[in-house]
Amino acid sequence: MDPLRTRPRGVAGALSVALLACACALPLHARAAVAPAPPVAAATAAQAPPDAAAKPGADGGALEFADDVDVRTRVEQVYDEAELRVLRLLAHLPLLLAAALIVFLASWIGGFVSQRLHWLRLRTRNPYLDGLLRRAVRGVILLIGFLVALDLLNATALVGAMLGSAGVLGLALGFAFKDIAENYIAGILLSLRRPFEPGELVRIDSYEGKVAALSARAMTLITLEGNELRLPNALVFKAVILNYTSNPKRRFDFTIPIDAAESIRKAHAIAMDEIASIEDVLADPAPSWMVVEFGANGSVLRFFAWVDQRHSDLGKTRSEAIRLVKGAFWREGIQGPRTTTHVVLARDEETAAPAPVDPEPATSAGVDTSVNRDIDRQVAEVQSTDPSNLLTLKDAT
């Protein structure tokens, strides 16, 4: 082959290869000028091993490097922020210790003062009210210490937010726990009014027992059967309360039927003597009696007597009175009701009928028909000692 003929062809081929390389390099240069790589990414790419750059899919590898750098940057920012907060906390640590010391002192002072309410002249004879006052005084002192601590930390704006949230939360809780709040308020009012004392025998609606305790939510009764009965304070406050032991004197009664042929006056005189002979029966007010009814089955007599509950049991005294009256009637021949059937077979007009015998006297001289004044003294005591009494005598108006 002639070397002169092949040289132009080799030069032309080299020029063609150079032009093709320039044409392919122009788009790459334009892409690099429009979207320059981040410095960190470029540095990472520069530090990357040659094998990574030589692998196919170089664009996907660059995106992975960029995501890795972004996550690392965020972690570093969070770490720097946490470190800054820790440094600020350490810088304010003396103030935090001072605020905590103020709250601790307020709690101690509150407990110290709440145990010595007589210094503030706030002590009462009511244990429930004393406990409520202790908690209130301690809470107020602790709240003052908490506010002083927040002011020391320059966080008074937090107080307004807390109070606003507490108001909304309190309203929501008030609707949700209405019954509990009602019982709590009723307990406070009962402790102030004090319609009964511990150990007194009371009847509240249909519940009967001795008062044992009064808490913030319920009142505890011990029934006569020995059972523990808890009544909500709201029910007790709105109920009809019958207090058996507010007055030490209490009356008992019982009825005894006698035959229609027996003398009522004789029966009542015998019964009065027997009842008055019982040691536990009071002479003032004295025993009394009344006729309940008179019918075909005889007469029914009811007897009344009074005892002092502080020294005598009502049920035992009543049982003894019934026993003595029954025995006296048996000894005197006063019989109980008897069913008698009278049959007339024939009428003898010539035979004079015997005159009927009336065991009752024809006069009522000496019989006591005065007004019963047994409880007038107690009524007068209640009128004179109750400061909330809204009733007055007609003559006084």
Could you name the key traits of this structure?
397 residues, alpha+beta, five-stranded antiparallel β-sheet, three-stranded antiparallel β-sheet, 12 helices, 53% helix, disordered N terminus
Order of strands, widest sheet: 4-3-2-1-5
Annotation, overall tally of beta strands: 8
For the largest beta-sheet, the strand count, sense and barrel status come to: 5 strands, antiparallel
* Poorly predicted residue ranges: 1-15, 17-58
Protein architecture, described:
By secondary structure, this protein is of the alpha+beta class. It is built from twelve helices and eight strands. Strand 2 and strand 3 (218-222) form a beta hairpin. Helix 2 (39-47) crosses helix 4 (58-91) and helix 10 (264-276) packs across helix 11. Mean pLDDT is 74; it is low at 1-15 and 17-58.
SSE order and pairing:
Elements (H helix, E strand, L loop, with lengths): L2 H32 L4 H9 L2 H5 L3 H34 L1 H22 L12 H26 L4 H20 L1 H16 L7 E4 L2 E8 L3 E5 L5 E5 H6 L2 E3 L5 E10 L5 H13 L11 E8 L2 E11 L5 H18 L44 H10 L12
Antiparallel strand pairs: 1-2, 1-5, 2-3, 3-4, 6-8, 7-8
Helix pairs in contact: 2-4, 5-6, 10-11
